[in-house]
Design a protein that fits this description.
The protein is an alpha+beta fold. Strands 1-2-3-4-6-7-8-5 form an 8-stranded antiparallel beta sheet, with helices on one face. A hairpin with a 3-residue loop joins strand 3 and strand 4. The N and C termini lie far apart (38 Å).
Length: 213
């Protein structure tokens, strides 16, 4: 339940306000998102499998062949596929974090859903603690750019781990734009399993100066 009394877990996804600024823009081949979904499934299978030496050698040969075939297609610039939104799913075209399905968003808020698979498991059925700040950084960073604001970078982020974040469950994410002071943008986020708070974060993003990398 978000602060507007709506259930994030049961709400259909809505269109995004996000408008590309065109940097490094290139046409995404049909099926690209599905390829990345298959890559995520592969990560899950490798994480949970206990293969024998024969299967290890076979999988390694296939992966090395794919690496050779993909190498000529490398974009060679920062604004490649990795940070893009596919449909209403943030980060679907990279595998650093799980896909974040955006349910609804405005210029000062964002509601989303996320499910961590076994690839992100730490121990005892809990999500690895290092993954959670990555998710917050991605989601809060997106909100810091709402309203077509200029690019900003993370200057500070503090995460409080309130309870275990479980693997395999559908979780909800809320993000709120708290305030803006000159180049500084303050945002907050909450990760929940139902009504139980798993983690919360506060972050400061600072707008880049002209020409700043």
């Amino acid at each position: 339940m978000n602060d507007r009394g709506q259930s994030i877990a049961d709400t259909p996804a809505a269109p995004s306000w996000w408008v590309s600024d065109g940097r490094g823009e290139q046409e995404t081949a049909a099926g690209y998102g599905e390829m990345m979904d298959a890559m995520r499934t592969l990560q899950e299978r490798i994480t949970t499998a206990v293969p024998d030496a024969t299967l290890v050698a076979e999988v390694t040969r296939h992966l090395e062949d794919l690496n050779r075939r993909l190498e000529p297609s490398a974009a060679g610039h920062e604004w490649g596929r990795s940070g893009e939104l596919v449909g209403n799913v943030l980060g679907r075209e990279q595998t650093l974090i799980p896909p974040v399905e955006i349910v609804a968003e405005g210029e000062t808020w964002l509601d989303a859903r996320i499910r961590f698979g076994d690839y992100y498991r730490g121990s005892n059925g809990a999500v690895h603690g290092g993954t959670i700040p990555l998710v917050f950084d991605d989601v809060l960073g997106r909100l810091s750019l709402s309203g077509n604001r200029p690019v900003a970078r993370t200057a500070y982020m503090h995460v409080d781990f309130r309870s275990i974040t479980p693997v395999g469950r559908l979780l909800t994410l809320e993000a709120r734009f708290e305030r803006e002071e000159g180049r500084k943008r303050c945002v907050r986020g909450w990760l929940r399993d139902g009504e139980r708070l798993c983690a919360e974060a506060e972050a400061l993003f600072v707008q880049l100066r002209p020409g700043q990398p």
